[in-house]
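Structure tokens please, single chain.
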Amino acid sequence: MAYLLGIDIGTTATKAVIIDTKGHILAEAFAPSTLMSPLPGWAEEDANEWWENVGTVCRDLLARGFSPDDIAAVGVSGMVPTIVLLDDQGHVLRPSIQQNDARAHVEITEFKAQTDEADILHRTGSAVTQQSIGPKLLWLWRHEPEVMERARKVLGSYDFINYRLTGVCSCEQNWALESGLFDMHRYDWADDILALARIDRSWLGEVHQPSDIIGQVTEDAAAHTGLRADTPVVAGSADHVASAFSAGLRQQGDLLVKLGGAGDILYVLDELAPDPRLFIDYHVVPGQYLLNGCMAASGSVIKWFRTTFAPDLDYPDLDAEGEQVPPGSDGLILLPYFLGEKTPINDPLARGIFFGLTLGHTRAHMYRAILEGIAYGFMHHLEVMAERGHRPGRTMVTNGGARSRLWKQVTADVLGLRLHQIAEHPGSSLGAAFIAGMGVGLFDDWAEIERYITIAEVTEPHMEHHRRYQDLFRIYREIYERVKDLFPHLHEIAKGQ
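Here you go.
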């Protein structure tokens, strides 16, 4: 029997699945990861912890009766575009800098001043933003020169795991595209942009498409994971791309709302149509693309709220409280910019705001306002897409938040869309496993992913609530426009403390 292993390097956990080729997810495992924010706006993780987690989840899965000889291939997905720096011996030099890290705001301004922003957008598909790799590398040269003098490789999260598995430095195409260092028209690194970031192409791996086999499991990696040495490993995929694919997004207009630690919203395009307010990705399916909106903080705000204000309650208890609050939270509005914000405002200095607090508001109001504020963030992305003529068709909802009836209902009501929830959806790890199967020829067509997709529930929007939320959304948008000039001043004051 041939099985496929999919691994996802996520913000909060490393997850893995084993699937067969008939549409069955046979086993799942996970190991928690630690997100560190030692200073405001910073987001880091320990790449070595990811590798330890990969060993843990692989050994866990194999111990359930699967033979290493039956694993036909491995695919890895992960957060993008993170930065992992290696020295000439392949050792990790410092904690990863995550995609939602906002430390390089000064370098972003400098990077923009040295480039033609319209040219950068045209060539790379993205504006220079909080997510761009170049400004973060400049920050490292400025603040950690001793690290950069020793650095010889820059890898993303899943490319790093692929390196540990195979000993090969490679780069999957979506890390390249989202890095802002890659000319998508030439399908090659842009040497002039690399020079601005003070690196050259020797620091970067060869660019591959997701199902390309980039190497085989080494003897050392086999000892760490329990996998068979020489098991094929494919290039894999960005986590949100793999998740969108495994949720069934394959046709123009298909939309995915991911209710996770960060908030992703993805829309399928049949043509390359970048927008400076959004990211664009290569779809797993050749010839298709994904418009990608990514909010720096989403479920992580919910986690912060529970940890800070309701440590003795579980999330279902908070949902029960929030259900007692009317739509609109009695005039309380949240701006969820707790880690700055990526798309669509691209403001690393933005901060979270509760607007409209009164003595009549309770913890339940604040909790519901968080759910609504995250949904307003998704609505802002739909507004940007609508300006370009992109209208959502079938809309899917996934990730941990999809288990919350209240979060789903609030999202459906704010967006005014029917949300199709996938049953027992493991997300990116399923997509990574399927990509591995395509790489070794166990599947003939990308459409075969439908074997693994079952709709568990459809959440219908309450249109009377939607109309109320539209009025509140306009206030949500205006709050930021009125206070955005204060954020830099606040940052300077906080930095001086």
